[in-house]
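Box 3.1 A note on notation
Throughout this textbook, protein chains are presented in two layers. The first layer is the amino acid sequence; the second is a token string describing backbone geometry. Keep the layers aligned when reading.
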Amino acid sequence: MKITLHQINICELVNGFENNEEEGVVGYGGRLNIRPKYQREFVYSESQQQEVINSIFKGFPLNVMYWVKNEDGTFELLDGQQRTLSICSYFVGEYFSNVNGNLRGFDNLAADEKETFLEYPLQIYICEDGTDSEKIDWFKIINIAGERLTNQEMLNAVYSGEWVTALKRRFSKSNCVAYQMGSKYLTGEPIRQAYLETTLKWISRGNVERYMAEHQHDKDCDAEWQYFQDVINWVKKLFPNYRTFMKGVAWGDLYNEHGRRTDLKASQLEERICKLVEDDDVRNQRGIFAYLLTGDERTLNLRAFSDNQKQKAYQQQKGYCAICHNHFDIKEMEADHITPWSQGGHTVQENCQMLCRPCNRRKSNK
């Protein structure tokens, strides 16, 4: 693989710039593919774009960029997409930047200022004669500065193709269909691949990379999109009364284990949710849904007895375990609910007893 350093001016980069979203983004006289399939979505904020323009007018050097030269003489942008789009978008008037103390777009610049901008030199490393895997490896290595790639963005690069392109169309746009359908239930930003990563984690049961390797050459993402719809529709049917703490629950994992159950009734679950929400001992309301489906109290992060409550119970028992009646130091004992929480017992002083660790373990295992 041959790598050489070149210098081009901004006027060469922005020549023939076109941003057709789904159709692609090109520059450099139509010879540079600015958004190849393995590239991420644009994530710079306007202030970050303005900093790029500010650096240009101050004559500060921008970080080197990386291109790949194809056999037909065209190029693909390997690293530097955010800076490149910031430059090109400013040139075509998509935003303003502070230039010499005034907020101006490119068309507002004086002739000498336009020349300063267009003649600014960019340092480009161009790679050629490499295999696809070598190019991707290089992409992974050089991505060490600026807006770091997320794990999912990196996997998108490694397993690029029709399937990933289709996935990004459904799950990775700012207002994509996945966001429109599931924004109340998922956290993160679609544009940084959070929705795609979450969905793939769910459908692959945690093994995203293996799943992507197996499906890289699929022609569409119909199976993944149908799965996502099934999960969200299942949640809406089972828990129709939306609550803000439903956002961020691992819904796909719950669906994988309980989606086929026929014993779950929305009205009964709602009644139990109301009681759990009002229970002061429940410290993790987001865990309510997993508890209702699994019965695992640990998902609720139930309130524990305070050190003061433990000390009072220890003194009342004079250091003796409430079950085996042997004497222990308080450090060798644990607080226990006399009436279990599941049977209506609360974390109050009257319901606290101290047990030695072996007795408490045996009681917990019953």
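The two ends are 65 Å apart (CA to CA). The first strand starts at residue 2 and ends at 9.
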